[in-house]
Amino acid sequence: MNQTTRVKRRMFLYLAIFIVLCLFSLFSGSLAPHDAELVDLLAAKQPPGGAYLMGTDWLGRCIWSRILSGAYSSIFASLIIVGLSMLIGCTIGLVSGYAGGIVDEVIMRIVDIFLAFPGIVLSIAVAGMLGPGLKNGILALAATSWTQYARLIRSYVLSIRQENFVKAAILNGQSSISILLRHVLPNAIRPVVVTGTLHLSSAMLSISGLSFLGLSSSTAEWGSMLSEGRSLMQQCPWVVLYPALAIFLVTILFNLLGDSVRDVLDPKGKTKSINN
Amino acid sequence: MSASNSGRIRHPVVRYVLRRLLSLLPVLLGVTLLTYGLMYLSPQDPVEMMLQGQGTAPDPDVVAAMRSQLGLDRPFLVQYFNWLWNFVRGNMGTSYIDGASVAGKLLTALPNTLKLTATSVVVTVLLSVPLGILTAVKQGKLIDFIIRFLSFVGNSLPNFIVSLLLLYFFALKLGWFPILSTGSWVSLVLPTLALAIPMTGKYIRQVRAAVLEQLGKVYVDGAVSRGLKSRVVLFYYVLHNAMITIVTLMSMSIGSLLGGTAAVEMIFSLPGMGYMVTSAVTSRDYPTIQAFVVWMSVIYIVVNLLTDISYYYVDPRLSVGMGVE
Predict the structure, then answer these.
(1) Rounded to whole angstroms, what are the CA distances from B182 to A187, A227, B179, B263?
(2) Contact B170, B183 (CB under 8 A)
(3) At what angle do helices A63-99 and A238-265 cross, to 10 degrees?
(4) Which residues on neighbouring strands pair with residue B94, listed in sequence order?
(5) What is the pLDDT of residue A218?
(6) CA Rg value for chain B
(7) Which residues lie closer than 8 Å to A177 by C-beta, 6 or more apart?
(8) Are the C-beta atoms of B315 and B244 separated by less than 8 Å?
(9) What is the pLDDT of residues B43-82, one digit of tens each?
(10) Which residues of A fall within a CB distance of 8 Å from B260?
(11) Mean pLDDT of all residues in chain A?
C-alpha cells in the first residue's frame, strides 16, 4: 500500500515536471535573451559568462538562446513521433485484430516486412526519400515505430474480442467502430500508454541522432547544434557541452517518466520498450 | 537439397532452416519493393539529379532521352523487377553523384562497419553480462545501486554524445588515441566504446532481470540444498538458463548497430556504411541508399535467423516452438 502510493507519487512528480517542460518549451523561444539566429562575428567564440550565459558559437550566436528556441523542436518532435506512431499503429492494430481473417493476415505480413528492416535503417531510407528536414525526420521515425503499437494492440484485441461484453455489444447491434472505440480500445489502452512513455526517450534520442547526421536539420535543434559545433570542440567545448547536456537531461526525465509510468500501470514489467 | 524432398531430410534443424528460408522469400520481396518504391515516390527526378551531378543544366530533350535510356519511362513494376534482377546479380547501379559503382562503394565500406559492429557487440556482452550478474547477486546492496545508476545514465546518453565525450577527453586532452580513425585496431577503441557504453547501459538491466528471475526458481534452491557451491550454481545453472536473454541481446545489439553506427562513423571519420549512406542521403544518391537499405536488411534477417537457430542449441526446450521434435 505504502509502496504503491510512493510509486504513484513519483509518477505524478515526473509527469508534472514533464508537463511544465512541454509548456515551457512552447514559448521558451521568446524568453531567449538574444536572437537565436543573430550572427555577430565580433562576439564569436565567447566563453560562458557575462552577457552570454552559455557563451557563443563560431558565428557569435548565443548558445543559451539557441537551446531555448531549440527546445520546442527537440521536445515536440519526440512527442509528435510517439503520438503519430501510436495513432497509426493503434488504428491498424485495432482493425487487424478485430477484422481477423484475410485482412489480419495481409496487415501482419506488411508489419513483418517493416520489422525486417533493422533499427534506424528504414528511417534513413524514408529520410532519404523525403530529403532532410525536421518534419521529414519525424515522419521517418514514425514510419518505423508504428509496428510495435500495431502488434501490441492487436494481441489485446484478439483476447478482448472473445470476452462476453464484446459479444453482447455485437448482439446488441452496435457498429464495429463503436465497439472498437467504446469496448475494445479502453481495455487495451494501458499497455499502449506504457509503451508510449517508454518510447519518448528513444524517440528523443532518435530525432536528435537524425539531426546530428544532418538528416533532420532545423535551424536550432539540439542534435544539429552538436553536429555543427563538434569541429570546434577543442577550442570552445561549451558549444558542444550545453546542447549535449540538454539532450541528456531531457532524455533522463523521459526515462524516469517512462519507468515510473510502467511501475504504476504495469507492475509486472511486461511491456517492452521500443528501440529504433 | 530442395524443399521437395524434405521428407528425407532427417536433421530437424536443417528442416527448420529450410522452412524459414522459404518463408523469408516474401519478406525479402516486400523489403526490396518497399525500398525501391520509396525512392520511386521521391519528389526528385533522378535524371535531373544525374545531370546536375555532372554539372549540366537539365535540357528537356536530353532528360527525355536519358529517361528512356535508363528505362525510367517504363511501368513501375517493370522497373522494379529489372532493378531487382540486376541487384541479385550484383549489379547495384552507379552512384548519381560520382558515377562510381555502388557495389564497389559498398565493398569498401562494409568491412569497416562489420569490424566496428563486431568489436562493439563483443565489448557490450563482456561488460553487460558480468555487471548484470553482479547486480542481480548483490541485489539491494550498494554496488547494485551504483551499477544500476550508471546503467541508467548510460541508457540516457546517445552514442554521438558518448563519442564526443570520449573524443574530447581521451583523444584531444590526453592524446591516448587518434582523433581520426585510421583503420588500425587502436583507432577502433574509442568508436567501439562509444557504441558499447549506451548499449551496455540498456542491457545490464535486462541481464539483471533475467538472472533474478532464474535465481527465484526452485532448481536453484535444490542445487543450493544439495550443497553445491554458489559459484557453480551461478555460473553453471543460472548462466546456462539466462543464455537465451544473452543471445537475444546480442542479436538486438547487432540490429541496432546496422545503420546505428552512422553518427559514430561520422565523428571518427570512419569510412563505413553509415558514413556512406549519410552523405548519400544529403546528396540524394538513390542507388546508394537503396543498396544500403537492402543489404542492411538482408544482414539483419540472416542475423535473426542465426539467432533463432542458436536458440535450439542454447536451450533445446525451445525447439518445441520450432516445430522440431
Answers:
(1) 56, 21, 9, 17
(2) no
(3) 30
(4) B101
(5) 60
(6) 25
(7) none
(8) yes
(9) 767 777 777 766 666 677 777 777 777 777 777 888 888 8
(10) 119-120
(11) 82
